[in-house]
Amino acid sequence: MAEKTSKLYAIVHAKCPHCRRGDVFTGSMYGFNIQHTKEVCSRCGQRIEIEPGYFYAAMYVSYAMNVVEMLIVSFIIYLLVGPLEDNTFWTYLIVIFAGCFILSPFNYRYSRIILLHILSPNIKYKPYYDNP
């Protein structure tokens, strides 16, 4: 029997929550081939979008991720340029929006992965898919 695939590995590598082996997305996170969420897992046949509109809930996860990222970027800007004042307002604004734009593919991918792996009680891991 093969060794069990860890949940952390499956989350980091965007694998199916049911078998932890199949890819959830086509395409790379950053690149010219746009990432799309697959309909079903190619390894175990698990439906990725469990019901129509299922990934609307991922918007809330993405929003929370975006707020945390904005706070971190704001803190880093604060350390580099000082407190928010009239002369640093545009620096803060431009860098925060640039960070949001640059991290949007990351948020798209991992908000769906977090929703599938952590916030979906109906999808259970089946270790027998780890067999070759």
TrEMBL record:
Bilayer-spanning residue ranges: 53-77, 89-108
Keywords for the protein's UniProt record, in alphabetical order: Membrane, Transmembrane, Transmembrane helix
The protein's name: DUF983 domain-containing protein
Source organism: Pedobacter mendelii
